[in-house]
């Protein structure tokens, strides 16, 4: 059993390595098994919730979109970070039912907002690499839109560079099917993966999201400034919109506005909020009440 744990650790270090068994591995393995069991129970008990982080349109001062972000409300441990459970969900395949639930819940909520009198607003939902590779995502999206009654134009599917580059032809086929419905497609965390610029033209992408790693350094880090400016220019030349993630200061927002970035997202505007709270941040016309708002 101890040898198995060491092998497991070596595999997760990238393979081609060896590991000695340590007592810490025993503890980690027990925690891993316990968390997996809790995760399975969480699906059955409906312990997941979605929070929504607004994206501000810098040209109009309105909330252009919201991104749906999953949270786990554990009955004993409280709110568990996605960073802790999403990798495990990917590894075990549980990301499939969790991802389907998140897509349905986001679309259902967006439709509910419209029924309450709010203007249609696009909701962005993340599709994990494993979910994208192993499920018929296009069929799932189609079924969810039909079941919730949400207009396809109000949905944006976010994928990572890793997801599309693993099997380019499969990715093109699946993304074309989704795009044909009228759903928008965005590439999340752009700049951190290895997407070839030439491939970007083949994918039916409408939005690029610049990873917060590059936003963090502007306007003082010249490398981050150069990369961010180049991505904005590239995206606009390809007819794509640009969203900057992780905006935390007024200086960053001003720089991005000056360089014609389309939308921004980050804690400077608002941290992710429950549906009931995020809806208070815009009135019946979808206008941001104070343009820039801080969460409680």
Distinctive features:
single chain; 296 residues; alpha/beta; TIM Barrel; 2 domains; eight-stranded mixed beta barrel; 13 helices; 47% helix; disordered N terminus
Explain this structure to me?
With 296 residues, this protein is an alpha/beta fold. It has 2 domains: 1-45; 49-281, EAL domain (TIM Barrel). The protein has helices at residues 2-11, 23-45, 82-92, 95-115, 129-134, 137-148, 161-165, 168-180, 197-200, 212-215, 222-237, 250-258, 275-278, and strands spanning 48-57, 63-74, 78-80, 122-126, 155-160, 184-190, 207-210, 241-244, 263-264, 273-274. Strands 1-2-4-5-6-7-8-9 form an 8-stranded mixed beta barrel. The protein is globular, with a radius of gyration of 20 Å. It starts with a helix and ends in an 18-residue tail after the last helix. 33% of the residues are buried.
